[in-house]
Amino acid sequence: MKSLAETEQEIIDDFTFFENWEDKYNYIIEIGQQLPSLNDKYKIDELRIQGCQSSVWLHCSEKDGRIYFEADSDSVFVKGEIALLIKVMSGKLPDEIVNAKLGFIDTIGLRQQLSMTRANGLASMIRRMKQFAAGA
C-alpha cells in the first residue's frame, strides 16, 4: 500500500499534465465519476457533512486498525474533491490521517480556484475525515 505522501505526489504528477484550470476542473469531475456510488442507507442526515454548499455524505469505517472512507455528493465537482481526499486518506492509519498536511490541494491549485463557500466545504470534508480518524 502506498504511503499518504506517495499518493499525494501521484496526484500532483497527474495534474502537471494539464495546462489550464479548466482541464484540471474537468479531470476532478472525471475522478468523481469513478467514485463508486454510496449505498443509499448511508445517505442520511447524520452522515451528511455540515458546511458544504452541496450535499455530501461520508461513511467512515475502521478495519484492522485502518480507516476507510466512502462518500457521495449531488455535485459532480464536489464528488471529485471527496474522491481525491479518499484516494489520499482511505486505508491509512488514524495517526497518518490526523497528521496529514494535504499539501497536494495547494500544489495542484485547487484551493486557489474555489469560491469561499466551496473552500469552506472542502475544509469541512477534511475536518470530518480527521475527526473520525481521531476518534477511531
Protein model, in words:
With 136 residues, the chain is mainly alpha-helical. The protein has one domain: Sufe protein. Chain: A. The protein is 54% helix and 12% strand. It contains seven helices and two strands; from the N terminus they run ααββααααα. The chain has helices spanning 4-15, 21-34, 76-89, 94-98, 104-107, 110-113, 116-135, and strands at residues 56-63, 66-73. A two-stranded antiparallel sheet has the order 1-2. Strand 1 (56-63) and strand 2 (66-73) form a beta hairpin. Helix 1 (4-15) packs across helix 3 and helix 2 (21-34) crosses helix 3. It starts with a helix and ends with a helix.
Number of helices: 7
Fold-level CATH name: Sufe protein. Chain: A
What gap, in angstroms, lies between the N and C termini?
20 Å
CATH class: Alpha Beta
The largest beta-sheet arranges its strands as 1-2
Number of domains: 1
| Largest sheet entry | 2 strands, antiparallel
**How would you sum up the global shape?**
globular
Task: Point out poorly predicted stretches.
Answer: none
Short description:
The chain is mainly alpha-helical and 136 residues long. It has seven helices and two strands, in the order H-H-E-E-H-H-H-H-H. Strand 1 and strand 2 (66-73) form a beta hairpin.
Features of the shown structure:
two-stranded antiparallel sheet, globular, Sufe protein. Chain: A
